[in-house]
Specification:
Number of strands: 12
Largest sheet: 12 strands, mixed
Order of helices and strands: EEEEHEEEEHHHEEEE
Number of domains: 1
Helix content: 10-25%
Low-confidence stretches: none
Strand content: 35-45%
Mean pLDDT: 92
Radius of gyration: 16 Å
Shape: globular
Structural class: alpha+beta
CATH topology: Acetoacetate decarboxylase-like
Distance between the termini: 11 Å
């Protein structure tokens, strides 16, 4: 059954700022499209913009998620144990990750084979979401399974979670302090409302 799935293994980073801009960046070292990074940007007026490094990646991500604007631009994500930096013109975003907390410890109790089991993801999504959501700072729209804009089923296996502090600049202009984020509405699931880094495996049916 694994051959029926496209697997993307990596990290998702997100934050929202006083300017009204919200960003969700993905860093995917292992994927059917090769190693790449991309950025989903919700402007203050609600316009959703996709920043991706190639036309192929732009086409794939743009098919499964919802955007009013799509741009090909270099996207670089540098990650260390405590810090990450996203550079995707016109954006630069930096996150300083906090030490692992209670949620990270709870997530680590599940063996990897269980985390990536689609039936178990369904259990977590339905039964455990009310318990985990408060640890994510709220965010009722957070989901671990659903259908993409193209109609394919998708599952998120969550491996680790790190809260963070964040700052960002657009064309060199500081976007202000990080704030709880409004919905980005890129897909069926929202990112946690406060700055964070989430280690995930995304599985999309062919």
């Amino acid at each position: 059954m694994g051959g029926n799935l496209l697997r993307f293994d990596g990290w998702i980073f997100g934050a929202a700022f006083a300017s009204g801009d919200r960003f969700v960046a993905g860093r995917w070292p292992v994927s059917p499209l090769g190693s790449f990074a991309d950025v989903m940007w919700a402007r203050p007026d609600g316009t959703r913009v996709l920043l991706a490094p190639t036309e192929d990646i732009l086409g794939f991500v743009g098919r499964h998620y919802v955007f009013e604007e799509q741009r090909v631009t270099p996207v670089h994500v540098d990650v260390t144990a405590r810090r990450l930096r996203v550079a995707a013109p016109p954006l630069v975003m930096e996150l300083d990750m906090d030490p692992p907390g209670t949620l990270s410890w709870l997530l680590s109790l599940r063996p990897r084979w269980l985390r990536t089991s689609r039936p178990w993801i369904a259990v977590e999504d339905a039964a455990l979401r009310p318990l985990v959501t408060p640890l994510l700072g709220g965010g009722a729209g957070i989901r671990a399974r659903g259908r993409t804009n193209a109609g394919a089923r998708e599952w998120y296996a969550i491996h680790a979670y790190r809260s963070a502090t964040a700052r960002a600049w657009l064309e060199g202009v500081d976007l202000g302090h990080a704030v709880p984020g409004r919905a980005g509405r890129f897909g069926f699931s929202e990112f946690p409302p406060t700055p964070a880094a989430v280690r995930v495996t995304s599985m999309i049916e062919r």
